[in-house]
Automatic annotation (TrEMBL):
Residues 129-350 form the NnrU domain. It comes from Brassica napus. It is found in: Membrane. This is NnrU domain-containing protein. The keyword Transferase does not apply. Its main location: membrane. It is a multi-pass membrane protein. The chain crosses the membrane at residues 85-104, 127-146, 158-180, 200-225, 328-347. The keyword Zinc-finger does not apply.
Length: 356
């Protein structure tokens, strides 16, 4: 299940009314001082969202429920193009085939050589685990930091292919090594026989996947079928925490470390949590650079610590907040999470056969 954290609907329509409003008049009107903070030079997507927010929400600009960013996890079946999903299926098949030949298959790929090279640097599985995470984190976050420059040089789709093509093999190697060596090292505690522990950990792991970052749901952008974008999300899980991926990873790590209870699991959790803490800082920095005042507006009424902004009154949940989760992407996450739990023996068997 770690692969979802390590990497990788139906809703009220946000469509504008037939008569298109004037952006400048809405953004500058004295009746909306909060919106007036955002200049008309803001990115078109943000200005469009601002106008939609003005039309959908209470016109009182001091109302913290006034939307600035995008509605996350929205999925309208009627707007999907069959040809786009056909392309997605073809691209997914090609990527998996190349990944198998170039990296996974021990007779043709470089995956085993990579693991052996890292492992020989230290006889400690804990150190090897940390090194694999460090290499992945450096490459993954490093390329993310270079996104603006990279997209200008080679385009959004080409940079996404480069980003995924480098990150995916490193992520898979790290996951497989963890699965194969999760019971190595020193046993620190043993709670697997304690009544209720398994159930509590299962619930924690299940909940952790609902903290997936909303952009993860945009599969067509992930596969570069649609042009990848850097989104400024605000609804759904973002109301609870501005960095859901980090929170979900921490919950997943703590649950697995509690269950396994050894030094390798603790080492993996230490590395992954450190990476995601850095990712939270780096993500805020990149969004502030891209969106400026619009991001600062969202930052003021969201929090990194779950529920902190809600408790402090900076975030007001709509009465129908549950509708932001009753959407196809979250239903799919539910099915995949339950399926991944029952597929644990298959993942463990496949990892063992690689001898990484």
């Amino acid at each position: 299940m770690a692969v979802y954290h390590l990497l990788l609907s139906t809703s009220p329509s946000l469509a504008l009314p037939p008569r298109r409003p004037n952006f400048n008049s809405i953004l500058r009107t004295p009746a909306h001082p909060r919106l007036a903070k955002f200049p008309t030079s803001s990115p078109p997507a943000i200005r469009k969202t601002l106008v939609r927010s003005t039309l959908r929400e209470d016109p009182d600009a001091d109302n913290p429920s006034l939307l600035i960013g995008e509605d996350s996890a929205a999925f309208e079946l009627g707007k999907q193009k069959l040809v786009s999903w056909v392309y997605f299926g073809v691209i997914l098949g090609v990527v998996l085939y190349i990944l198998n030949v170039v990296w996974i298959d021990n007779s043709t790929g470089f995956g085993k050589s990579y693991i052996d090279a890292v492992s020989t640097l230290s006889g400690s599985p804990e150190v090897a685990m940390l090194m694999l995470i460090l290499i992945f984190a450096t490459v993954h976050s490093g390329l993310a930091s270079l996104r603006d420059v990279g997209e200008k040089l080679i385009g959004e789709r080409a940079f996404r292919v480069l980003f995924a093509g480098v990150s995916l093999p490193l992520a898979m190697s790290t996951i497989v090594f963890f699965i194969n060596h999760r019971y190595d090292g020193s046993q620190l505690w043993q709670l697997q026989g304690v009544p209720g522990v398994h159930e509590a950990i299962w619930v924690a792991n299940f909940v952790s996947f609902f903290f997936l970052y909303p952009s993860t749901f945009n599969l067509l952008e992930v596969a570069a079928v649609d042009k990848p974008k850097m989104h400024l999300w605000e609804t759904g899980i973002m109301r609870i925490t501005r960095h859901p991926q980090m929170v979900g990873q921490i919950v997943w790590c703590l649950a697995h470390t509690l269950w396994i209870g050894n030094s390798v699991a603790a080492s993996a959790s230490l590395g992954l949590i450190a990476h995601h803490l850095f990712g939270a800082w780096n993500g805020d920095r990149r969004l502030a650079k891209r969106y400026g005042d619009a991001f600062e507006g969202i930052k003021k009424r969201t929090s990194i610590v779950p529920f902190a902004a809600i408790i402090e009154g900076r975030q007001v949940l709509p009465e129908d907040y549950y509708k932001e989760f009753v959407r196809l992407p979250y239903l799919a996450i539910t099915a995949l999470t339950v399926g991944a739990y029952f597929a644990h023996p298959l993942m463990q068997g496949a990892s063992f056969r690689l001898h990484w």
